[in-house]
Amino acid sequence: MTGGADVVRADMLVPGSFFCGYRVVRLIGKGAIGEVYLVKQERLDSLFALKILYPEISASDSESVRRFSREAKIGTKVRHRSLVTVHDCGYDEELRVNYMVMDYVPGGNLRVAMGVTGRIAIDRAVRIVTQLSDALAVLQRFGVVHRDIKPENIILQPDGTVKLVDLGVAKAMRIEDSLVTLSGAAFGTPIYIAPEQVADASDVDIRADIYSLGVVFFEMVTGRCPFIGSNIAQVLRQIMDDNPVPDVRDIAPDVPSEVAVLIRRMCVKDRSRRLQNFDTVLMELEKLPYDLRGCRSSGSFYNPRGGSLGHVPAVPQV
Questions:
Q1: Exactly one of 134, 148, 209, 247 is catalytic; which is it?
Q2: Which end of the chain, N or C, is less surrounded by CB atoms within 10 Å?
């Protein structure tokens, strides 16, 4: 990328202008490799998010382009209300940029929410984990491992719906795509990645996502991560050693024992002893005494305190 870190880059698109048939409303954010805009499809009277890679990234950073393409392809093939759907993607010859058009997701991320409240109420944390587990179960059926589950990638919408974003580092195992071959780099955020992901990121499966979601669950109900160090090396040593993840009740004694046990089972360091798939995680969540009505896109929940919640209709796939 050209220019130093202190150089302010002009926005690529101007509000009111048109890009590939979409009217630009405003810039949502920009990062090291691109920008995201809120755009409107006038004929549909609908808002979308437009993600663009910078021209120099599109031209020379093949790994970023591969991740971008991977995110677009997975977002097009896998549909779930807690996943961001990609509606279009391509390469614009005039600006020389790769782009994708996807759902616009209003709301703040879980990291921001925890920064305000510290801990998340246990019943709300359980509902968040249930929605994410339901979405990850769908990814699992498509053979996709997210590999970067963290609070920054979990968006809390005003209506209570949770969205899991950023499939750019996901590993697709069965979607036929020549772009999904990855190096052994430990993609993901160190605090949340599973021990096997630290050892060899090319040898991970859905159990790594179960571990990462368990760590997020731990952080929500306690207000802190299970491993704390003054640097990443210290955190990684704790992830890799033989000591189990701390009991959440040692930090937050008010956490119910059944919630603490589920978190521990999700965060077992030996993946052969960890909960093995998200269908099993959902079964265990179903046993907890919380109202999980509407947390799944299909299926039914039983609430021990209030009886059967009945069938929750599937979200239409369009």
A1: 148
A2: C
